[in-house]
Hints:
Elements: E1 2-6, E2 21-25, H1 30-41, E3 45-50, E4 67-70, H2 76-90, E5 95-99, H3 103-106, H4 116-139, E6 145-150, H5 170-181, E7 186-192, H6 198-209, E8 218-222, E9 225-230
Helix pairs in contact: 1-6, 2-4, 4-5
Amino acid sequence: MKLMSLPAPDFWNVPNTPYQTCLLTDDGSSTTTEVAQCLSDRGWQVIVLSFPNSLVPKRPILPATVHRVVLTNLSEEHLQDQLAGIFQTYGLIGTFIHLHPISQYLYNQPDTLVNPDKAILKQVFLLAKHLKSSLTQAANQGRSSFLTLAHLDGEFGLSGQQDFSAVSGGLFGLTKTLNLEWPAVFCRSLDISPDLDAATTAQIILAELHDPNALIQEVGYTRKGRVTLTCELAHLGV
C-alpha cells in the first residue's frame, strides 16, 4: 500500500431534497461546533448526537439552530429509542457524519473498565445498522451520505510521525463494507491530521460531502495536501 496524491475535490452543488437532515456525532471539541455551523449555514437541519459523559465529557456550545440529543448509556435499545425520537421529530436522516475524538484525549477518562475507542466504534456500527433504512430511502431522492472522520495522522497511519490508537481505523473497514452493501449511498472515510484546526476540518468535510466522485472511498489530509491509498505490485527477489 502507498499514498497517492489527490487534487482538491470538485464541488457538486447537490440539489436540496426532502431529507436535508444531518445526524452529526459530537467529538467533544470545537470541530463539532464548526461542522454544525457550516452545515446549518447551507440550509441543513442538524442534530448533534452526544455520547455519554463517561466517554466524551465535554459538550461544545452549538449554534442556536442546531439540536442536541444525548445518549445516557451505551445500550442498543437506548440508541434505538433516541433515533426513533429523532425520526419522529425531525424526519428521516439523509446524511450521517461521525467525528471520532482524538484518541489521546479519550484515554484520560476516569472509567478504566471501558475502552472508549472501542465503545464509540461499536456505537457507530450500531448507528449504521439502524440508519440503513433512512439513508437508503433518502438516496432515492438525491444524494445521501455516510461519512466518518478519524484522526490517525492524515496518511492512514503510514507516516510514522503520530501516536494514535489503531481502533479508530475500524471506521475505514466499516465504510468500505457499507459502500458495497449500500450502492446508492455516498460512503467515505476521512483521516484528518490532528494538526489541522477545527475550521479547516469543517471545510474539508463540507468539500468531501459535495465531491461528485463516488469511486474514492478513503481520503487523508495533512498540511501537505489530500491523499488516498493505492497499491502496487511488490517484486520479491529470488
